[in-house]
Write a structure and sequence with these properties.
The chain contains 34 helices and 30 strands. By secondary structure, it is an alpha/beta fold.
Length: 1004
């Protein structure tokens, strides 16, 4: 954990500095310069790498006298058969049957094999088998696995890391090192000593059928830098790395699993390109190398002779010329590139004669052992040669701790495979990998959220996370139409089209465009502004004949869930594109190419650790939420937590009603009640103040002529906003409109809309138009409290609504939409939500048996707000938790959101100040503030600079500039009976969750 803390602290510091800078300076144009195109794709311009002296090479596993003594001792006690047995690493599968396991038992017992390489299966099954086999082996076994993107390459129920080509786009090498470390810890946890990584192949052939995405790229320096970082991460844990596929499988057009590829380059080119990463890796401490099955005439003069069995390659080049002294593996000997060349047994012998130490995946160990023994007895293999390899193997066994038996702890393996830290790391990888390769007219990030945006899916894989995340920024319409002409007609209604190309994230699936998809893309691009986002291997994008008519192109590399979530954030500027292409797509999009832009300060999404929060602690929110539901305090709720501009916890709990027919979704809308005050009315008041149209010392008599001559005339705006104006809390206006049976009287209401009765208060009930004005009259005529003291009042914001509408010349609901919500991307927040949303997406508030006599769903609960047509300064707003978080983030960012200045930091500071704290009034201007004593709205564990509001329906929004945390809690605790005891408040559910959030902070 200490290592994680240090690692994350460094990354937090960098991210925080970037974010602060972007908030301070605002948005800027795209950095339009990408890395210059190299003179050659292989980076030949700086010639050959010059190695350091052998004595200066780094090492992760130092030589010791003890290991040499142990190796000599064990070797001297071995029979010839046992010595030869150490040369074999046999294939093992934990998903096979007992016949396979028994055959391995026999090889361990009868042939004394030196190790196993595991392939398909599962981590727990493999651990059990490893223990079984280790117990039988006289000399502990090497256990290896070929896990290039983690154990998930081979095993089910394990974590999948991004492919090497995705990592090749990342320029933060600390992240690559951490990926290596995490992969190694998983391998080590199930008893592995080798992970056969990194791939050192420089993929200069786009048609390479077997390397491709397994490579870090086409440029030797990029490949080398990433390989070194990955190796450091792996070997720092005590797990061995194996660089492959020597001398280089990147520029081949044949899969060596099926045939023998041929490289026709001269030795100078191979020295300059293919061998470059090996030389650097040897200097950095690489433990072992895997030799490929290739035919390279410039290195091996015998016609058709595989490199894996070539003495010229394995001994002369690798050991003598390059000075490599670590372990040397063959590539799997069952691969057709080698097995077609020579029969089992003979092939193993040739491989050993060539200079290899470990024969990987032999097809017939008894026969191979016999062939090698015969060669030894006939003098073809010297004692020195055999001892060289076997003692080297034994020395490395000692280095890894195999001088004594090792057994795997089988308990806890599933939990070790999936830890929250891995998800946090995964987010960081894609935040650094996604590459912007075209950005005409700085179309990205998408700045104007008022434009109409369509989304079109190409490809045959899932796209749900991408589309869902896009819709967290603004309204997005998915258009499904396969006919180009019909599609373009439908797209005329839109200003911008996002095209997502989604292909399977499984490693060996093709990522090609179909001809129909290419034609469709071309047609779309001819008539529309288009952003193309490819969730595919970069090479797939080379099939597009021309990008001339496509305004922006983003390479997201893989179609994983996190890749989709992060890529959507890139499009809207919450994440800066930092990646650089690891390979060339076309003449325009070359290796090393990639634009950046300054991110917009919109809310993003990431894992808790990436902003210094503990996911384990946050998970305790689930228990509190369930307590509330089980205790019938509310049927359901939404909880959102954001920190440093990133949403890190966003969950929906329970159901819309206690009948449990409709589960709450994170997108569902709630009546936020009095949160309306700071989420709708207050931003407009602050904007008017910022523009100099309002002053705090102005009286209501100055602002509203209709208040002159009333007892409200002398109240100042400052007093009004602070709930310090001696106003009554509220008046039950509705009661005067009911008969003795608590039913609406016909002189005030109509069951259906008709002239003169057009103020809708519920589904079929309409109020007389004139009554809305009478509410304000009753407020003006109400008595003031005798004593000047803090008294929370709804009148405050009903009066403020009047002021806002007078100065802005439009109704409150229109003003907040045009001045804030539309440009901020608040797609759900609105008054009278049934004008846009289906009632099924809105949590019901109560079953009203005292006023409207009906089920209240999509109509405001607050009676006065209902009588004002659902639009009131104190209540009436509906929203989901994400849109409320955006408003609170706007406040945290002191009036700036999405690069737009809505009001100044000075205005925010004025309104977030407690002006009457000395008089016992905790309120800011409009904002609620933490309690001054024991009782109040918060957990008592947030800073005094924090602010927010609560709502009668069971809602709360709170933000803290000190911790940079936004907390949103939405519920319908008033359902079905708003007059029932408020158990949610009595049990401190909202406050207890807030306390957990504070306890989750890791970097106080």
């Amino acid at each position: 954990m200490q290592h994680y803390a240090k690692f994350l602290f460094l990354l937090f510091a960098i991210a925080f500095a970037v974010q602060c800078n972007s908030v301070k300076n605002g948005p800027s144009k795209t950095h339009s310069k990408s890395l210059p195109k190299p003179n050659t794709v292989s980076g030949e311009e700086d010639d050959v790498y010059i190695p350091v002296a052998k004595a200066d090479r780094k090492t992760f596993f130092k030589d010791t006298p003890a290991e040499q003594l142990w190796a000599d001792s064990v070797y001297n006690q071995m029979t010839l058969k046992e010595r030869i047995g150490q040369l074999f690493m046999v294939a093992a599968y934990s998903n096979k049957d007992s016949a396979h396991f028994n055959s391995l038992d026999r090889l361990i017992k009868n042939e004394s094999i030196g190790g196993l390489i595991f392939f398909q299966g599962g981590p727990v099954r493999q651990a059990k088998l490893t223990n079984r086999f280790q117990k039988q082996s006289k000399v502990p076994l090497f256990i290896g696995i070929d896990a290039e993107w983690g154990l998930n390459m081979r095993l089910d129920s394990t974590y999948k890391y991004p492919w090497n080509m995705t990592l090749g786009a990342v320029k933060n090498y600390a992240l690559i090192e951490e990926v290596g470390r995490q992969m190694a810890l998983e391998a080590k946890r199930i008893g592995c000593h080798f992970n056969f990584v990194p791939v050192l192949d420089i993929n200069t052939n786009p048609k390479n059928p077997i390397i491709g995405h397994r490579s870090f790229g086409e440029e030797k320096h990029n490949v080398t830098d990433h390989a070194v970082a990955l190796m450091k991460g792996v070997q720092s844990t005590g797990v061995f790395c194996t660089g492959k596929h020597f001398p280089g499988h990147g520029d081949t057009a044949t899969d060596s699993h099926h045939a023998l590829p041929q490289l026709l380059f001269d030795k100078e080119r191979i020295e300059r390109v293919e061998l470059y990463p090996y030389k650097k890796m040897f200097d950095e401490g690489l433990v072992s190398v895997m030799v490929a099955h290739l035919n390279i005439p410039s290195l091996e003069h015998r016609d058709g002779w595989p490199t894996s069995v070539s003495h010229s390659v394995v001994t002369n080049v690798l050991q003598d010329e390059l000075g490599f002294e670590g372990l040397i593996f063959t590539d799997a000997l069952n691969m057709k590139g080698a097995s077609k060349f020579m029969a089992p047994g003979e092939l193993d012998l040739e491989a050993f004669l060539a200079g290899n130490d470990i024969l990987l995946f032999p097809e017939n160990v008894p026969l191979a052992s016999e062939k090698i023994a015969t060669a030894y007895q006939n003098g073809l293999i010297s004692e020195n040669r055999l001892a060289q390899s076997v003692k080297k193997i034994l020395r490395y066994k000692y280095k890894i701790g195999l001088q004594k038996p090792q057994l795997v702890e089988e308990k806890g393996i599933p939990e070790a495979m999936f830890t929250p830290f891995k998800e946090a790391l995964h987010y960081q990888i894609y935040e650094n990998a996604i590459t912007l390769v075209k950005n005409q007219d700085d179309i990205l990030p998408i700045k104007d959220l008022r434009q109409k945006i369509a989304y079109i899916k190409l490809g045959d894989d899932q796209n749900t996370p991408f589309l869902q995340t896009l819709r967290k920024y603004t309204d997005i319409t998915e258009v499904v139409e396969s006919h180009p002409d019909t599609l373009n007609i439908r797209l005329k209604a839109f200003d911008l089209v996002i095209v997502g190309f989604h292909k399977s994230d499984r490693a060996w699936r093709k990522h090609d465009f179909s001809e129909a998809e290419l034609q469709l893309l071309d047609k779309i691009a001819q008539s529309n502004k288009v952003i193309l986002d490819g969730f595919v291997k970069p090479y797939a994008l080379s099939a597009v004949p021309s990008y001339e008519n496509i305004e922006a192109v983003v390479v997201s590399y893989q179609n994983s869930e996190i890749a989709q979530v992060v890529s959507a954030q890139v499009l809207f500027g919450a994440v800066e594109p930092k990646g650089k292409l690891p390979v060339t797509i076309n003449a325009e999009f070359h290796e090393g190419h990639g634009f950046n832009f300054t991110p917009l300060n919109r809310l993003g999404f990431t894992a808790p650790e990436n902003v210094g929060m503990s996911p384990t602690t946050l998970a305790r929110i689930d228990q509190v939420a369930q307590k509330a539901i089980d205790g019938a305090m509310t049927p359901g709720m939404q909880v959102l937590v954001a920190r440093r501009g990133k949403v890190i916890f966003h969950k929906a709990y329970g159901n819309q009603t206690y009948e449990a027919q409709t589960k709450v979704q994170p997108s569902d809308l709630y009546d936020v009640a009095s949160v309306t005050k700071i989420a709708a009315t207050l931003p407009l008041v602050m904007q008017l103040y910022d523009q100099g149209k309002l002053r705090l010392d102005q009286t209501l008599g100055e602002l509203l002529p209709e208040t002159k001559g009333t007892n409200k005339e002398a109240i100042t705006l400052k007093e009004l906003l602070s709930h310090y104006a001696r106003l009554q809390a509220w008046i039950p206006f509705y009661k005067a409109t009911l008969d003795a049976e608590k039913c609406p009287m016909p002189q005030y209401y109509s069951l259906g809309q008709k002239p003169g009765f057009e103020v809708q208060v519920s589904e079929n009930l309409y109020l007389k138009n004139e009554y809305k004005e009478s509410i304000f009259t009753q407020i003006l005529e109400s008595k003031l409290l005798d004593q000047k003291e803090y008294k929370y009042s709804d009148f405050t914001f009903i009066i403020l609504q009047r002021i806002v509408e007078k100065f802005m010349g439009k109704p409150l609901d229109e003003a907040i939409q045009t001045n804030f919500y539309q440009s901020m991307g608040l797609s759900s927040a609105r008054f009278n939500p049934l004008h846009k949303f289906d009632a099924r997406n809105i949590a019901p508030t109560e079953i009203d048996n005292y006023f409207r006599q009906t089920w209240i769903q999509g109509y405001v609960h607050d009676m006065a707000a209902a009588m004002m047509g659902g639009v009131a300064g104190h209540a009436g707003l509906f929203s989901n938790s994400l849109d409320m978080a955006k408003i609170m983030q706007l406040y945290l960012q002191q009036g700036n959101y999405g690069g737009i200045h809505y009001f100044s930091p000075e205005t925010f500071t004025t309104f977030n100040t407690c002006h009457y704290c000395a008089d016992g009034n905790r309120r800011g201007l409009g904002f609620d503030k933490p309690q001054l004593g024991k009782e109040g709205p918060t957990c008592g564990c947030v800073s005094m600079q924090s602010f927010g509001h609560t709502g009668f329906t069971g809602t709360m929004v709170w933000a803290d500039p000190v911790s940079e945390i936004v907390y949103v809690f939405l519920s319908n605790r008033t359902f079905p009976d708003s007059n029932a005891p408020n158990k949610l408040s009595k049990e401190n559910i909202r406050e207890d969750i807030q306390k957990i959030i504070q306890e989750a902070i890791l970097d106080r």
